[in-house]
Amino acid sequence: MTKMSKNQGFKQLKFNRPQLRFIISKIASAVSLWGRATGKSSLIAWLIHLIVQTMPRSKWVLVGSTYKQILAVTLPSTIASLERIGYIKDKHYFVGRKPPAKYRWPLPYEPPLDDQYAIYFYTGACIQLVTQDANGSSARGNNLDGIICDESLLLNKERFDKEVSAGNRGNRRYFGKNPLHHGVFHFSSMPYGDQGRWLVEAGNYVLEKYDLLSLQKEITDLQLKFIDSRDRDFRKRAWADMQEISKLIRFAPDEKGLLYSEANAFDNIVNLGLKYLEDQRLQLTDFVFLTEVLNRRPGTVEEGFYPMLSKRHAVDANNNDYILGLEFNLKKLSTIDSRMDSDCVSTMPIRGAVDWGSKISVLSLAQQHPSEYRFLKGMYVKHPKLINDLADQFIEYYAYHLKKEFVFIQDAEWGNARRPDSDMTYNEQFAERLRKAGWTVRIVNMGRVPVHQVKYHLAHELLGETDPRLPAIRFNKDNCKDILTAMSLAPVKQGRGGEIQKDKSSEKKLTVPGQEATHFTDTVDLHFLSIDKHIINPLMDFSDFMLLSA
What would the mean pLDDT of 214-235 be, rounded to a whole number? Predict the structure, then answer.
């Protein structure tokens, strides 16, 4: 049996406060809602380490919504974290295959049926990769010793309970005294809207003890001001205040051994450094920074501009054949492009609409599929990046697209302003950048766009799916996360004459979550208008007709 060396030259681990809380607490299960860069991957690796050492020959599952998420996001960071604590791939464990016979490692008491979706460790412990993709590996029918879930907010809860939780049973004669046995450990960023609400509700027992929500709003307000300020004296005062508030935020297991906890990047600032947070603040939208870095619970919009938008409009569309064909090559898996998207038809043109802004510029991309209009991806850049940066992002992601034709959906009012240092408008410069990269750009000019009330009713009709003559609207759940969030948070208001309007006042506010949400929605409106004008009701083209005399 391969043994762990005590002198492999690995750096000593430095756990942050949330990680230490998790490690020293006597827990049977956990819901950890932690923001970006808080150390979730390191904690998953540590949990796997405990399983390998204390539960030899056990079989756990690592659950994700898609294989793209598991293989391109979860697995690379987990493998890197495992290496930091001494586990070397192809020495202490094998991914996607059994260990060579010469190693003479023990196998799990109940091995997986398909080695392609398994990680085998030298103690006989095994982690089976399970997803909710159409082609994914299923846990149905398995007897499991425990469950680890990454980005649980993306999971279909009903399917998870039916297909995964139901199999968390058996083997008590081997592991009955181990507190980890049959544990369920959820790791996720902060849910928003109705998505993943069940995860937040797991922490209701904490709310019964003290006002967690008020304290977290107070501390995230201070953290945001701390990042935005360059005044050293202010930062010192704010830092002291944040430490005092942090002492009041406490998480402990409930009576059943479930530990609910929340954490954000400030909890890991010793490892990250302040520059990381400052860079993220510049690169991310305000909503993403607040929810995914500062882990702030977003507000909800009761009466939105897109009331017919629902879960059915967001679909998984990952090209698992391509992803699995990379054979767990972490370098290739880290390069994410359109080949990983099963809904991007490489022989069809790509349709796009852009919204240029002083703070953020956004691009939404789609294709017209048979009986369906599919939103493929949302992209954005923040100031000082602008036209060429957004164009280059598109060019790089779709570098392997075969039919390099871009249908540029424009309106007559926006995007045609000229920069002082250029003779071209924003739209013209963007189109020219694409042409230089080998793309053909076809302009679809929508003319003067109609008032908000017309857009509201059109979105209501298209998303409502009551007219069989209209194409179904679908969004790539992974690639259009920002677009879907923007639509779900876009508020509606009543104009002076009683007409329906989109409330865009949030664009002018500095600290309101979702302040930039309406930028993406404006590009969605352009797509919807182009569907109505150029796909559903196109004008007949007589240019190729010939008049023949009798």
Answer: 96
